[in-house]
Amino acid sequence: MKGESLLSVSGLGAGYGKIQVLRDVSLEVAEGEFTAIVGANGAGKTTLLTCLMGLLRPTAGSATFRGRSLFDLSAHRRVELGIGYIPEGRRVFAELSVEENLRVTATRRPRGAAAGEREVLERIYGHFPRLAERRNQAAGSLSGGEQQMLAFGRALALEPSVLIADEISLGLAPIVVDRLFELLGELHRAGTTIILAEQNARLALEAAQTAYVLEAGRVILRGPARELGADPKVVDAYLQHL
User: N or C, which end of the chain has less CB nearby within 10 Å?
Assistant: First the structure.
């Protein structure tokens, strides 16, 4: 069941130099909701998430997080508010060990976090036993799937109330993808708000409650995820190629 409004985005525009990527994007995410943002490569999904995380300055529009202007907050302040981020392309610290990567984020947890750092790390190792086996190994020497687990674990080390994930299935073996989506479901059922941008629309629509379809930087469809995924006209027109 959806809670109160958590994130509200209105009329968002963004781009890179003279290239306009997002045009008048608006969306609403409720507390505790699982929201999917789907679309083909180049639709603007990553640009939208980088704006939400403070890594790209929007050219137009507004966003509020729990009633407060999100764009007035620095990127690190957004993290301190409990917004975890799994970026596209993993972006682990290659020279640091697995555990050092996790500790970098664990130290940014909101003040008053209930669990101690060691407890948080062991919880992540429970989710990803392979990371536990490689805790002293340099992150740059991990396989692609292991690096994605580490990127996921690094976001979880924050103990986020909101998890923003970008293209977590990209280039991974099906068994790894299945585990990552299984974990997203577990987190959502435990109360975490999930915002997932994903090119694999079918997986995303099966997992999420609400979905937005981006095309050429605009929201062209929105609604219950399962309904969008089951509508033959929607699939034929917008999702068949994803």
Answer: N
179 part of a folded domain: no
Beta partners for 197?
37, 166
Q: Tell me: do 75 and 113 sit in the same domain.
A: no
Which domain does 151 fall in, by range? 92-160
- Give the predicted TM-score (pTM) of the model: 0.90
Q: Do 123 and 227 belong together in one domain? A: no
Domains of the chain: total: 2
| pLDDT recorded at residue 214 | 92
DSSP state of 97: B
Q: Quote the tokens at residue 144.
A: 């692609």
Return the pLDDT at 12: 97
Residue 38 lies in a domain: yes
Q: What is the DSSP string of 131-192?
A: HHHTTTSBGGGS-HHHHHHHHHHHHHTT--SEEEEE-TTTT--HHHHHHHHHHHHHHHHTT-
Longest CA pairwise span in the chain (Å): 50
CB distance 25 to 222 below 8 Å? no
Instruction: Label residue 42 exposed, middle or buried (CB < 10 Å: 0-12, 13-18, 19+).
Output: middle
- Average pLDDT over the chain reads 89
The verdict on residue 218 lying in a domain is yes
Q: Which residue has the tokens 């435990």?
A: 190
Q: Is the pLDDT of residue 109 over 80?
A: no
